[in-house]
Amino acid sequence: MPRLNDTQSILLAHAAQNDTASLYPLPLAFSDGADRVRRAIATLLRHGLVEERETVDAKAVHRTDHDLRYGMFATAAGLAAIGIGEVGEGSAVAAPEPAVAAVPTPATATPRPTKAGAVLALLSQPAGATLGELISLTGWLPHTTRAAL
């Protein structure tokens, strides 16, 4: 299994929080880094940690092909890479399964608590979070916290 960078980990954690395991809509933290996100998604796709599937949800669209809409969705292997669920024994990446069986529902998944997950949870609150709150939550230095954002 490839080692994930911060962007890839955050994208997969974000997908794990959605009912459909969609990477889209992207987290607000990535609104300015389109090239970085595109490279991260391409790497995840290449390693089988995400897959492109047809979707009807307008918010989950990654690309369109005439009248068909496609989105990017985390696979079981992608969720296992961040500590959610298990990948079948004997292979690094399980063979593609039907869309319904490929991803466990977030209600049954128990994500491993991480600092990135805690930061995302704090930022996703309606009031957001201050830099001081993020620093006290993570124990990071101010410049590290700003870099993570």
Characterize this entry briefly:
The chain has 149 residues and is an alpha+beta fold.
Q: Give the neighbour order of strands across the main sheet.
A: 1-3-2
Count helical runs. Answer: 7
Envelope shape: globular
Low-confidence stretches: 87-101
Give an account of the 3D structure.
The protein has a three-stranded antiparallel β-sheet with strand order 1-3-2. The chain is built from seven helices and three strands; from the N terminus they run H-H-E-E-E-H-H-H-H-H. About 10% of the residues have low confidence. It has two domains: 105 residues, Orthogonal Bundle (Arc Repressor Mutant, subunit A); 37 residues, no CATH class. It has 149 residues and is α+β, with helices and mostly antiparallel strands.
Write the layout of secondary structure elements.
Blueprint: H1 6-17, H2 34-46, E1 50-54, E2 63-65, E3 68-74, H3 76-81, H4 99-102, H5 115-123, H6 131-138, H7 142-148
Antiparallel strand pairs: 1-3, 2-3
